[in-house]
Amino acid sequence: MTQTAHGGRRRLDASVPPEYDVPTRQPRIESARTVRLIMVGVFGLWVVGVAGALTSVVAVGAPSWLQRPSAALLMVVFAVGLTHRGGGHMRIWLPITAALGVAAVVVETNVLLASAAALTAILSAVWAVLVTRPADSLVAVLREFGLTIVVALSGTVAVAAWNAPVNYQRFNLMVIAIALGLAITLVWNLGAGLHGLGKQNLAILAGAAVLLLLLLAYSSFVRSHGSDILVDTFSDLVGWMRRTFEGVPRPVEVFIGFPALIVGVSLRSKRRDGWWVLVFAVIGTAVLSTSLVTPGAFPTYIALSTLYSAVLGLGVGLLARHYAMRQGSARAARAIEQVVRVEPPRFAPLK
What we know:
Residues 4-12 have low confidence and may be disordered. Strand 1 (2-4) and strand 2 (10-12) form a beta hairpin. Strands 1-2 form a two-stranded antiparallel ribbon. It is an all-alpha fold. The protein starts with a strand and ends in a 17-residue tail after the last helix. It is 68% helix and 2% strand. The protein has one domain (23-327).
């Protein structure tokens, strides 16, 4: 893998084709045609589910009974996509998810509806991040960023279609916590564990974690112990933005979730420990997937807030990517690095 150049300097041998650096299982279905048919079928079900769930947000005259079955269909699609991508056992998780969806649609108790809505948000938030590919160029970064937003938004309309009676604050925190735990579990092997982190990526992770704690702690402190002047100032600012722009960007998405997504997919094109940065991207997709869980939420306001968050988060993320992708040392600059790290196709298992 290395060769000695003139003068004794050792360089990486770029002539050797790179291989995927994570062990994977053998394909469960050997026929390529059958695999393509299944992928097309799952995609078709995703389109049907999104169209049905959108009727809970956009008034098109569709019958109301269509909404929750569409949400259940999307929940099953998210479970299939995430289980397949993460290398899980479809025969275990698919029946459990389908049973919960059928029970929630038929029985319609508050507990079942809330559980189905939470599971839908969690699965869509994590799958939206895991379905990404390494991005070594600006065009590839924008492509992965757009795909993640689309998948997360499909989870948003699915959660809205459940119309579950929940408390938004508790529901949001629960979804974020469970989605983070699930993402860490899946990324542990994909990112070579914590021991696979380099100093630079460890610093990025630590900085993101500290920023997240500061945002959560400061927002909680302001709400509970802030002075009346400070609280009124924030309220007036939010009110002015709502009246002027009809939407307010969400700080967690702007400063943590979306920038982590951009930096993570970029680092994955070089090293697999970039997966650890993507753990924080799940926070952004989880917040997005739960944004319409409250029946009183205005879809136009949420849509514009998401647009502003995406634009600002993209700017912050591209700036962070510029510094994260720089060569860390002169020794690294002298090495002939692999241009793009190899990973399985987008809809193939990662392990």
